[in-house]
Amino acid sequence: MSDEQKLVRFGILGCANISIKLCKAISKAPNATLHALGSRSVEKAAAFAAEHSLPATVRVYGSYEAVVEDEEVDAVYIPLPTGLHVTWAVRVAERRKHVLLEKPAAMNTVELDRILEACEVYGVQFMDGTMWVHHPRTAKMKEALSDAQRFGQLKWIHTSLTYNPGPEFFKNSIRVKPDLDGLGALGDIGWYCIRAILWAVDYELPKSVLAFPGAILNEEGVIISCGSSMHWEDGRSATFHCSFLSYVTFDVTVLGTKGSLRLNDFALPFEESLGYGTFLESSELDYGKIEPGMWCPKSNKHVVETEFSQDVCMVKEFAGLVLKVKRCEMKPEKVWPILSRKTQIVLDAVKESIERGYKSVEIVS
What we know:
InterPro entries: Gfo/Idh/MocA-like_OxRdtase_N, GFO_IDH_MocA-like_dom, NAD(P)-bd_dom_sf. It comes from Flemingia macrophylla. Helices cover 36% and strands 24% of the residues. Strands 7, 8, 9, 10, 11, 12, 13, 14, 15 and 16 form a ten-stranded mixed β-sheet that branches. The longest helix has 21 residues. It is α/β, with parallel strands linked by helices. Helix 11 crosses helix 13.
């Protein structure tokens, strides 16, 4: 097998800021290469390629369609506004090219189902762009939560992801435009909060979702700040808050009957550029470390080393699946579309609860 056959050739639709990160990640992943970039004009695509020093071998196109039609493209990364996802993801799948789709995956579950059905029919791999789940730290945290002796039974989860981007954002960003990214903060950062909660409960959907009163919408009806609670039949519960109006937070707290897990950088590790990520864990087994006058044990800091940053890990994992499908070693891995769909179901329920005047929404699996 030639070296070229060991690489997934990526095309990228659009020159969004996140495309910069993915271009770098593709260049660092050992099983991927950037083959094509398309924008709404060839001048914009060429300027992007020059500004970010993309290799001269990268084909630059003046349309998204040209990337999709390029016979040498194996997989397409789609960072377009969410309102365009269903159109372009389906087109990509119909051309039998694998789909790496930026989050939120779709405007609603109906649209996402159209995307996933196309991927299923044409036999291509689907994955959404939730990077943090691919960091080695995430697997280590799951090991800690799965240790019944230390953690006990899971009882409660809270996640919070907020940032305040300033007045220009609210004037110009696609994230507050109803025809582009109509889910607003709920889609942009609430997606991360919901995914983290589902990850902690092994992706078991909650029985009910209840949005907190007081969600803030802009003049065009786009959510810019909201929160919600979730409840499971066995008594577990979770809450989250996402907002474009608050100081930056990336927090997760998971509480069990015997222990806890916390981190303040779940979506983007503080130290990842140095080759590691950390998290805090404590349990009843640590009570022997309690100092006089204290009632709460100090948390243990766990350091998880990583060869690649989480964006590179995502590209590497996705490309590995694509190569196996290309070689007929396996059919597309179905776990990734399942996780995306469950996240979308809960997101839809939060939005519905807000629209119904903060009434509880039952989720049917």
